Amino acid sequence: TNNPATNGCPDRDGDGIVDKLDECPDVKGPAENNGCPWTEVHVSKRLSSILFEYNSDKIVESSYEDVRVAAQILNSDDLKDKHFYIDGHADQRGSAAYNKTLSLKRAKAIVKVLNERAGVDASRLTARGLGETQLLCTEETEECYQKNRRVEVLPKSATVVETKVVKPTTKKKK
Hints:
- The longest helix is centred in the middle third of the chain and has 21 residues, at 96-116.
- Helix 1 (40-48) packs antiparallel against helix 2 and helix 2 (64-74) crosses helix 3.
- This protein has helices at 40-48, 64-74, 96-116, 142-148, and strands at residues 84-89, 125-129, 150-155.
- It contains four helices and three strands; from the N terminus they run H-H-E-H-E-H-E.
- The chain is an alpha+beta fold.
- Helix 3 (96-116) links the parallel strand 1 (84-89) and strand 2 (125-129).
- The radius of gyration is 19 Å and the shape is elongated.
- It starts with 39 loop residues before the first helix and ends in a 19-residue tail after the last strand.
C-alpha cells in the first residue's frame, strides 16, 4: 500500500506498521500489539493480574491499570462486537457455597468497573461465579491460593472441554 507513514516500505495489511516490524503482516492490528489483532487472551492476561482485597470483592487500587488496559482491548475493533463471560474463581479455602458467592461478586465487580470506569458495554459481559470448581493447583500454599483466586474472560462462543489441575513438579534429590 502507498501509506506515507510507512515511507514506501511494504505494509501488506495496511495497518501502518511496515511488514518487517509487523508480527502479523497479513492481518491488521494495533502497534501496541506489534501489528497483531487483539484477542481474548490479551484481556485474560490483564484480568488475571487483578487482585482483590482478602475475602472481598473490592479491587486493589494497584489493579486499576490492568482494568483500563483490559477495557481498551475489549473496546478495540478486534473485539468490540463480541460477547464474553467474566468468570470469577476462588481458592479452595472456605465452603464451596461461600466461594461460589464470593467468586460471583468478584466477577460482577469486574463487569461493573469495566463498564463504569472504562465504558465497556455491560450487556456484552456476563458475570459467572465458578467458586472452587476449576482449581489450577491444589497445594495448600499462598502461591497456589493466589493462582486459584482469579477472574478470566471467555468468549461466549467458546466451549471449555476440560480444565486441568497442574501438579507441582517434584525436585529430584541429587
